[in-house]
Design goal:
Layout (H helix, E strand, L loop, with lengths): L9 E5 L4 H12 L3 E6 L2 H15 L3 E5 L5 H15 L4 E4 L14 H29 L2 E6 L2 H5 L5 H21 L4 E8 L5 H6 L3 H12 L9 H12 L10 E4 L8
Parallel strand pairs: 1-2, 1-4, 2-3, 4-5, 5-6, 6-7
The structure holds nicotinamide-adenine-dinucleotide.
The site of nicotinamide-adenine-dinucleotide has 29 residues, from helix 1, helix 4 and helix 7.
Length: about 260
């Protein structure tokens, strides 16, 4: 069996209904895994699950889950274990942002950004890790952002929340190495997804994104399919000696030492 074969494995992808999460879910199913897409967009998640199942012949399950609620996360994870079996790989991909200069943001916006992008990751890890520890196996890949590594205009709270995800991931990697559980982070740069489209409804956001795009050394925006294989690699046996690491997939926009 190849080191990148996920046959017999169960993968949970949060925010798997669309965008980067959908490409990640598909890449795992193509590698042989059964996949659960956990999302607040239940209809989109079900359509995506059907599409991936038809294309790959794997079992793909859409699970209602709001990562901001620990109770919803625990219920969703229980459903995955019941329907598919123990979770081998957790991908924390659900995320959200709006581009607004810090002094124009409100406490409500801070709360929403922190709840989805940081607290959501805490919730899923809290729900899934005990089972991974009991089985002494598992891999977690958290989707952060290059904003966390170098800062990003109009994304102060988001950058902070995504940086928290990196610090949290490194600490879990240290705490659970003894349990044979690896935790790594992927930081996309600008990637063509519905989220980026929605953000560009705003003129300031459009300017910031346009300026950033013009600096990408590889001369194009990223695609969800650029990010997915890196996530699959990090979760796979081929990456067995890699933990606590952060990899940018951003066309060279950031080059962090
Ligand atoms: N697109 C980019 O340029 C970019 C850049 C850097 C990082 N990222 C990160 O990549 C990840 C995916 O982003 P995307 O661009 O594909 O976004 P997207 O909005 O296209 O997809 C995100 C998915 O997460 C789901 N989601 C949102 N809130 C949720 C919640 N509370 N519970 C469960 N699911 C929820 C959405 O319904 C959606 O299906 C996010 O973590 C984002 O921060 C994206």
């Amino acid at each position: 069996m190849s080191e990148r074969d996920f046959t017999g494995k169960v993968v949970l992808v949060t925010g798997g209904a669309r965008g980067i999460g959908r490409a990640i879910a598909r890449a795992f199913a193509e590698a042989g895994a059964d996949v659960a897409l956990a999302d607040i967009r239940q209809e989109d998640a079900e359509a995506t699950a059907r599409e991936i199942a038809e294309a790959t012949g794997r079992t793909v399950l859409a699970v209602p889950m709001d990562v901001t609620s620990l109770e919803s996360v625990q219920r969703g994870c229980e459903q995955v274990r019941h329907r598919l079996g123990a979770i081998d790989v957790l991908v924390n991909n659900a995320g959200w942002d709006r581009i607004v200069p810090f002094l124009q943001t409100t406490p409500e916006l801070w709360e929403k950004i922190i709840a989805i992008n940081y607290r959501g990751v805490i919730h899923t890890c809290y729900a899934v890790l005990p089972h991974m520890v009991a089985r002494r196996q598992g891999s977690i890949v958290n989707i952060s952002s290059d904003a966390a590594r170098v800062g990003s205009l109009g994304e102060a709270i988001y950058a902070g929340a995504k940086a928290a995800v990196i610090a949290f991931s490194k600490t879990l990697a240290r705490e659970h190495a003894r349990d044979q559980i690896r935790v790594n982070v992927v930081c996309p740069g600008l990637t063509e997804t519905p989220l980026i489209e929605e953000m560009q409804q705003d003129e300031f956001a459009r300017k910031v994104i346009g300026a950033m795009a013009s600096y990408i050394p590889l001369k194009r925006l990223g695609r969800p399919e650029d990010v997915a294989p890196v996530v699959v690699f990090l979760a796979s046996e081929a990456a067995r000696y890699i933990t606590g690491q952060v990899i940018s997939v951003s066309g060279g926009l950031t080059m962090v030492g």
